[in-house]
Amino acid sequence: MIEMIDVWKTYPNGVMALNGIDVHIEKGDFVYVVGPSGAGKSTFIKCMFRQEKPTKGDIIINGKSLTKVKERKIPYVRRQIGVVFQDFKLLPKLSVYENVAFALEVIEQSPKVIRREVMETLELVGLKNKARFLPDELSGGEQQRVSIARSIVNKPPVLIADEPTGNLDPDTAWGIMEVFEEITNRGTTVVMATHNKEIVNTIKKRVIAIEGGRIVRDEKRGVYGYEEDANPISTH
Ligand SMILES: Nc1ncnc2c1ncn2[C@@H]1O[C@H](COP(=O)(O)OP(=O)(O)OP(=O)(O)O)[C@@H](O)[C@H]1O
């Protein structure tokens, strides 16, 4: 499903963020990516949806190489991958419904399909009754639910999340995890970079630990494994 083969990433300023990553993630897996600040987690995630291109190596998602694909075909490959960020990235002037529908309008789905899929997805994330609200009329947790709905409405096989609970209070973060579990139960592969020790140690899943751009641990039902930075303030 997701395969990273000897992936290296050196940024133009010379920083070597990934130093030979090999990873294989099966369909329907849920994987946490953990590690200290600056370890390379975001770079790992960004390479996975081709926001960054590896300097060397290959990434294969659902049988398609992300490094060999032609520039103009990148949007098509990206449709295989939903992405959720720490800061939601919603369009402020559009309603909840419109923010989610947008993802289907760009791929020219019919209005009937759009309505059905958007309402189904809003129901999944528990926001059916807030379809007409604007993002700033919602709580942080609700905004993150909208952002999740937007990233899964076209049913991508892979959902990638970079610190999705980073801006949320602990109770709200647990609610977001329930949504992710539901999405995994539907067969979607979920990869989530996080500093949230409590979540990783409670909802036990595969844990990939990155340090200095290398995988230093890969455990089936792993633990967070770091004491010093349970919930650091993000540097992004
Ligand atoms: N666009 C960039 N240009 C140059 N260097 C970068 C860039 N993005 C990240 N880096 C560097 O690459 C290294 C890995 O950064 P990355 O953001 O992947 O770490 P991280 O594990 O996600 O950290 P955090 O937990 O703080 O978000 C760091 O040394 C960082 O300074």
Structure description:
The protein is α/β, with parallel strands linked by helices and 236 residues long. The protein has 2 domains: 1-80 and 156-236, Rossmann fold; 90-138 and 145-154, no CATH class. It contains 7 helices and 10 strands. The protein has helices spanning 41-48, 74-78, 96-105, 111-124, 140-152, 170-185, 197-202, and strands spanning 2-10, 16-25, 30-34, 56-61, 64-65, 81-84, 158-162, 189-193, 206-211, 214-219. A 6-stranded mixed beta sheet has the order 6-7-8-3-9-10, sandwiched between helices. Strand 1 and strand 2 form a beta hairpin. The radius of gyration is 17 Å and the shape is globular. 41% of the residues are buried. The mean pLDDT is 93. The chain binds adenosine-5'-triphosphate. Adenosine-5'-triphosphate binds at residues 11, 13, 15, 17, 35, 37-43, 235-236.
Architecture blueprint of SSEs:
Layout: E1 2-10, E2 16-25, E3 30-34, H1 41-48, E4 56-61, E5 64-65, H2 74-78, E6 81-84, H3 96-105, H4 111-124, H5 140-152, E7 158-162, H6 170-185, E8 189-193, H7 197-202, E9 206-211, E10 214-219
Parallel strand pairs: 3-8, 3-9, 6-7, 7-8
Antiparallel strand pairs: 1-2, 1-4, 4-5, 9-10
The structure holds adenosine-5'-triphosphate (ATP).
Adenosine-5'-triphosphate (ATP) binds at residues 11, 13, 15, 17, 35, 37-43, 235-236.
InterPro entries: AAA+_ATPase (IPR003593), ABC_transporter-like_ATP-bd (IPR003439), ABC_transporter-like_CS (IPR017871), ABC_transpr_LolD-like (IPR015854), Cell_div_FtsE (IPR005286), P-loop_NTPase (IPR027417)
Function: Part of the ABC transporter FtsEX involved in cellular division.
Membrane topology: Peripheral membrane protein
